[in-house]
């Protein structure tokens, strides 16, 4: 039985990767931060209580990617075959507000793990979660040989992690690779990321719980894919004979405006009535256009995205409608009926409010 160690296991990618590896027969170990509240909701459906005699192949360890000693101890204890480093301060806009923290967590954590692998003389194969944000202002489409032009503290930190991964591969012979993943989303995406922020707002507006959605740059274009597809690519990178770096994306880009068109249009709404621009959501240096050229991954990994833009948006809207109570599983009413009932209730409330102000 292979063993995998995952940092950031409680995040979107970590939870999907855990599902994928468990289905492959792995024993999975994850590093989680100690907190006074539980933060493992994305993994709850995978947990098995050893007291009930269940087959346990998922283990969570308290740890700190800011501590070299702690990481070394965990690697010696678990003795993993594969290490997936997914943990980071991954919100680009927040990195401008917390640049030093972002540099430490997103950049230096990578060298801590690599050095722990080297010192332990471990055979573990290492995956570094690199980011398309490293390309920054480089002209699209971007591929493995495109020069990096980072435009944020987050991108700069990821670029340090990218190069130190290559340095340990070349200098020490570690099996270490970078997955340069373009934007990948799902219903498990964090609520402050623009895709999930939009789909949650759609559900809240339909349910009559929200009136406006505040956003920044609507003209930014991104290559958006489906997170469960992308964790398969992570795994495939560590199954190759030699470690290499790969760009992972769909090969098509869409603007935030197009995302609004698709999400609001799916429930019959015009987003122009609800969206407001707030300058605080603009970045000091913007990244206008990220578009993957994933031909190397298509050819070498035999990987292809299964879910594309329109289906992705609809998956996310449906999930947030269900979370808003508009599509309870097992009930006879369709999602569409619930959607429009919620919409009509909201319209009635708006009409009543307007009447009261006259």
TrEMBL record:
Pfam families: GDP_Man_Dehyd
Keywords annotated in UniProt: Lyase, NADP
Domain NAD(P)-binding stretches: 5-316
Cofactors required: NADP(+)
UniProt enzyme class: lyase
Domain of life: Bacteria
Swiss-Prot/TrEMBL catalytic activity: GDP-alpha-D-mannose = GDP-4-dehydro-alpha-D-rhamnose + H2O
Listed CDD domains: GDP_MD_SDR_e (cd05260)
UniProt keyword annotation of NADP present: yes
GO molecular function: GDP-mannose 4,6-dehydratase activity
Family, similarity comment: Belongs to the NAD(P)-dependent epimerase/dehydratase family. GDP-mannose 4,6-dehydratase subfamily.
Name under which the protein is recorded: GDP-mannose 4,6-dehydratase
Organism: Candidatus Chloroploca mongolica
């Amino acid at each position: 039985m292979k063993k995998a160690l995952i940092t950031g296991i409680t995040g979107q990618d970590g939870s999907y990767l855990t599902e994928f590896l468990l289905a492959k027969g792995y024993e999975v170990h994850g590093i989680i931060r100690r907190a006074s509240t539980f933060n493992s909701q994305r993994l709850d459906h995978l947990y098995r209580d050893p007291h009930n005699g269940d087959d346990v192949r998922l283990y969570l360890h308290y740890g700190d990617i800011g501590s070299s000693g702690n990481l070394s101890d965990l690697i010696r204890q678990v003795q993993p075959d594969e290490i997936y480093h997914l943990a980071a301060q991954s919100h680009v806009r927040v990195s401008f507000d917390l640049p030093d923290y972002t540099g430490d967590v997103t950049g230096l954590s990578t060298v801590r793990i690599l050095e722990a692998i080297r010192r332990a003389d471990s055979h573990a194969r290492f995956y570094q979660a690199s980011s398309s944000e490293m390309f920054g202002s480089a002209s699209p489409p971007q591929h493995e040989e495109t020069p990096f032009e980072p435009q944020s503290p987050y991108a700069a930190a990821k670029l340090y992690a990218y190069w130190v991964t290559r340095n340990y591969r070349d200098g020490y012979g570690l099996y270490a690779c970078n997955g340069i993943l373009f934007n990948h989303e799902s219903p498990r995406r964090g609520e402050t990321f623009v895709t999930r922020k939009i789909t949650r707002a759609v559900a809240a507006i339909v349910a009559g719980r929200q009136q406006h959605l505040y956003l920044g740059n609507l003209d930014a274009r991104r290559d958006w894919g489906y997170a469960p597809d992308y964790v398969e690519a992570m795994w495939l990178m560590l199954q190759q004979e030699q470690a290499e770096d790969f760009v992972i994306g769909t090969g098509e880009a869409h603007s935030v405006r197009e995302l609004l068109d698709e999400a609001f249009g799916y429930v019959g709404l015009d987003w122009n009535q609800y969206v407001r621009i707030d300058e605080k959501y603009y970045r000091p240096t913007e990244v206008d256009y990220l578009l993957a050229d994933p031909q190397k991954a298509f050819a070498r990994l035999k990987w292809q995205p299964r879910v594309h833009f329109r289906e992705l948006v609809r998956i996310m809207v449906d999930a947030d409608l269900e979370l808003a109570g508009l599509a309870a599983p097992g009930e006879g009413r369709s999602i569409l009926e619930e959607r429009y009932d919620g919409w009509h209730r909201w319209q009635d409330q708006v009409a009543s409010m307007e009447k009261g102000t006259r």
